[in-house]
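Hi team, as promised in this morning's meeting, here are the two structures we talked about. I've kept the exact order from the run log so nobody has to guess. The first one is mostly here for context; it's the second one we should focus on when we meet again. Sequence first, then the predicted structure tokens.
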Amino acid sequence: MDYIKRDLERKFLHMSAAFKAVMVVGARQVGKSTMLKHLAEGQNRTYVTMDDTQLRAFAQTDPKLFLQTYQPPLLIDEVQKAPELFEEIKILCDENDARGQFWLTGSQSKKLVKKAGDSLAGRLCILKMYSLSAREKLCVDPAGELDFSLQSLTARKKLFGQNHILTTFENIWRGGLPDVQEKDEEQLGEYFNSYIETYLMRDAVDDYGIADTEGFRKFLRACAAFTGQLVNYNDLGASAGVSGVTAKEWVKVLQSMGIIFLLEPYASNELKRLTKTPKLYFCDTGFCAYLSSWTTRDVLMNGAASGHYYENYVIAELLRHYAYGKNKVNLNYYRDNKMREIDLIIEENGVLHPVEIKKASAPDKSAAKSFSVLKSAERTVGTGAVICMSDIVLPLDENALIVPSNLI
């Protein structure tokens, strides 16, 4: 499989020009090492991996000598396996003012991020990487940030093909892990099975001390069954035969691994009686589909959970886009005690953009009926969007647009 240009490349190189060390974290097999090795081509940058048992032992027992042997500019893969290096990296960073001396990859664990952040405060930039987006698979790179205006979205539409339901659900069912893109259904199933056993279960035991591996496997599948729904730790725990307290801890583990993310509810002093429970989503919909035994694209597309998967897909695509973008953005959802809901609120530069997600191709104005609740938030409310399976960008009303989901 040819190298696929990643949207994170721009931000990574920009941060490497400003920081002495940059670390890319994320779930297993999302392409962290591949991207950094690609960016290092043509540079005089040494590559070492802590997956190599001899190199790892060397780094752990004598980190100073290790970094005298392998000098910057240096790319260290799987650095979480030799955290002893961080203090020595700090010393080298302080001795030299050069930027981009150390490129690091590691797991997304909070333990690693905290240790690296504490040791290399002010010297290190940490960036998060996700699996391939639908846009990356198409090799389409629209310039600039996503702008919810009719003019901008109409111009963006010229870069993308048809917003087709089969293509969309192929992306949802297959997911974005680079190694599964050219596998058939049988190979894909075996890949994900191996992914669980080779990476996730091993990390669960080695990094998080989880002894009940069978319960953890059941918990993974329970989370997949609850994707797109409010988190209920007791229900999740019951599905895996563990307590709600354990379920809450295991949710944190899966977040640390980069497998799931929690979309927090919107909070506002002006808006009372809001739900305080987060919603659970998978970072990669293909892995989620495998865990729930959706064995083909068509079975998933025509199944009862297709709406939840479509919502998960759209929110995960937006999560990627904003993680790699220039602007700091808050993503939340809205629900109050009157059951009024907004699937997503994008808060950018102090402006709230309400988003509803519908699998339909021609949603009517009722899809945006809850957007008006934000008028009480005493915040600027910008253009809203109903992201759906429409193939054209259209005004829904004076405050919202119909947006094809392949444009995000």
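And here is the second protein, the one for discussion:
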Amino acid sequence: MEKKYKDKLIFDELMIMDEIDRVCTEENIEYFLTAGSLLGAVRHGGMIPWDDDIDIAMPRNDFEKFINEAYKKLGDKFYLDYSNTNKKYFKSFAKVRIKGTIFREPIIAENIEWGIWIDIFPLDNISSKDIDKAKRNKEKIKFLNLILEKKYAYGFNANKRLRSKILYIVSKFIPAKIVIERRNKLMKKYNNDANDFYVNYGSQYFVEKQTHEIAKYYPTEYIKFENKKYKVPHDIDYVLKKIYGKKYMELPPIEKRVSHDPLFIKFSDGECVDFNKEK
């Protein structure tokens, strides 16, 4: 992606991030930059140069409070995408998007027009003694995610393997509500005050990388991100080492510097870019 388009995308995503930060501040909702966004803040002072989205996380209670408050509190330019606001939304985490924008990815069916976004991941509780249970839990959650993805995200022809085509057909006969309820129940299965670790089931990373001591998150701090400041866990070094290893400040090899590889973007100012034509 050319720098001029990357800068426009960052501008739009920071606009969303500012709105989320405003709502969270007003409603006393906790959030943290996480994953690549946390790494980008530390290593690059903002977005990782080849990244194209921002990720934040919220403890489950704060996440559900945000979901409930977003209807009333988000400004007119924004909307919440989650299973209770969009019948065809299949992710286990939420997104806040800009109305009127489009960010079309290769994996999404052509008839779905989703706007530029920020990801919001819920953090559920787990005991350090139950990591193996969390691993098994995530495998079940991944399978339920797959059913919903086949149901809404991929067209029949996008499923190259016979098994995937069969699952795509089967998914059409399974009510999404049942799958989502089962998934949410699994994610919140071990949530109680006695458990002292956060686990992010929505992350692409293994459970071991995304299971962190709750105490390492508090008291939260602010860090510079682009020309803004957003909240981060207290012990950033601990969190980043858990996810990326001790050498997280080193750049990865070029082949691992990947993005969402958009096919088409419509920015908040109305400019449209077809990246298939740009290539």
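Starting points for discussion:
The radius of gyration is 19 Å.
Residues 3-27 form the longest helix (25 residues).
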